[in-house]
Specification:
alpha+beta, 2 domains, 10-stranded mixed β-sheet, about 20% strand
Length: about 425
């Protein structure tokens, strides 16, 4: 029900967007939007596989109730799979882009921006599927000393992340080898980032962006791209990265040429001291870099047990001040949300990202991935709303709510309450996050 409410509030023209998808069928039994929506519903309700989605649809009132709620027929997933095999993945990514643009225009993410302006866009890659055979010619592989090859379908993601746990996909680039020529080195995450950055700039030309990325990314190529696109960045700086920059940091620290700040926090039985240092205008090739270095010390107030210190360093092109060291450091550390609220959630909580929804078509694999991202956006807007958070209390979880929803969809006959359901969906109240 909540998913239908979110679609009605944020994306009232969602069905129309799906209806624009190209359709080459001559005698279609289902509308193209119904085929695509069936796949999205599979991910919305976390069925985990096409087979399980079809089995659920065959139980008592599930199919009838889904059709009542979404006002579309629910085809079997084999029928939808034909569309997934033929549809250009860019078509579904364009729909995802429209959804993100709507969210931004509706100011859903405004309160989570850096410096009240920049959207925190985390970049990271992950393996999606592994194979003992070559699934498609572009698939990267690793060859072991034993001679065994393992192919892995890998994807690079750009997601807007926020303090409340949003991890919203805005653009996707698959890591894949070229097929039209011989290559000395396989495709890599950094090579894919060049393509991904071009896609982001094309899809969101005026969006104020701050890139958050891990220790793979502090290099001249990334700095140049961000400078060209007028993007900000907050990138993890590890020991051993940019050695000349670390040498300069050490020198400036010794002479006291830095910006300092300290924050004290008290949690039950623990005192937390965060010590911030900022270093500005460090020359690296043709770039002037700023560094935020924070040490977090925790002291137990109840025992003598020592808690290891933590240290985080980030390179950035934000101008530093004593007032913004904490916000910049925290925004850089928020990159973890693309892994936790992004990839881990999609792999481990029912979306079943690593399941091979298509074993024979790379085009279908990409389309299933995009449908999963679309469903994940809708679900996040559902369960992260303040209304739902108030309903889930105590030891209850969103997972238990999802199980209850599936049970209701199977057992109840919502057709008898069509008017009531539609009234709830159409009720005019604001979703807050």
């Amino acid at each position: 029900m909540q998913t239908a409410i979110v679609l009605n509030r944020h994306f009232p023209e969602f069905e129309q967007l799906l209806s624009y998808l190209p359709d080459s069928r001559k005698r279609p039994r289902y509308k193209v939007q119904e085929l695509a929506m069936a796949v999205i519903i599979m991910f919305l309700y976390k069925r985990g596989s096409r087979n399980n989605a079809d089995n659920t649809a065959g139980k008592i009132n599930y199919k009838k109730n889904i059709e009542h709620i979404f006002k579309m027929k629910l085809p079997d997933l084999d029928t939808s799979n034909r569309l997934m095999q033929e549809l250009a993945p860019s078509e579904l990514e364009a729909i995802k882009k429209e959804m993100v643009s709507i969210i931004i225009k509706r100011k859903v993410l405004n309160k989570f921006r850096i410096m009240n302006l920049y959207y925190n866009v985390a970049i990271d890659g992950t393996g999606v599927h592994s194979y003992k055979y070559e699934p498609y010619p572009e698939c990267p592989y690793k060859e072991y000393q034993s001679g065994i090859k393992v192919w892995t379908a890998m994807v690079l993601e750009a997601k807007i992340v926020s303090a409340n746990g949003f991890s919203i996909s805005i653009a996707t680039e698959w890591i894949k080898n070229p097929t039209d020529k011989e290559f000395d080195k396989q495709d890599s995450e950094l090579k894919a980032f060049v393509r991904l950055a071009g896609k982001i700039k094309k899809l969101y030309p005026r969006l104020p962006i701050s890139i958050a990325a891990d220790g793979l990314y502090p290099n001249n190529t990334v700095f140049n791209i961000c400078k060209k696109n007028k993007w900000k960045y907050i990138i993890t700086l590890k020991d051993g990265n940019l050695t000349t920059v670390w040498e300069e940091i050490g020198f400036l620290d010794r002479i006291g040429d830095n910006i300092k700040d300290q924050k004290l926090k008290r949690k039950p039985n623990i005192l937390i001291v965060e010590e911030y240092k900022g270093f500005q205008n460090i020359e690296y090739q043709k770039h002037s870099l700023n560094i935020v270095d924070v040490r977090i010390k925790k002291t137990s107030l109840k025992s003598t047990e020592e808690i290891p210190d933590k240290r985080f360093a980030h390179v950035t092109n934000f101008n530093l001040s004593r007032q913004n060291l904490h916000e910049i450091s925290y925004s850089g550390r928020m990159r973890w949300k693309i892994e936790n609220e992004g990839f881990k959630e999609q792999k481990n909580t029912g979306y079943n990202l690593q399941h091979k929804y298509s074993r024979t078509s790379f085009i279908a694999t990409q389309n299933y991935y995009q449908c999963l991202q679309i469903a994940h956006i809708i679900n996040q807007l559902s369960y992260k709303s303040n209304t739902i958070k108030k309903l889930i209390k105590g030891n209850d979880t969103w997972t238990s709510w999802e199980e209850m929803v599936i049970a209701i969809l199977i057992v109840d006959n919502l057709g008898k309450e069509t008017n009531i359901i539609q009234q709830i969906i159409n009720e005019n109240y604001q979703l807050r996050y």
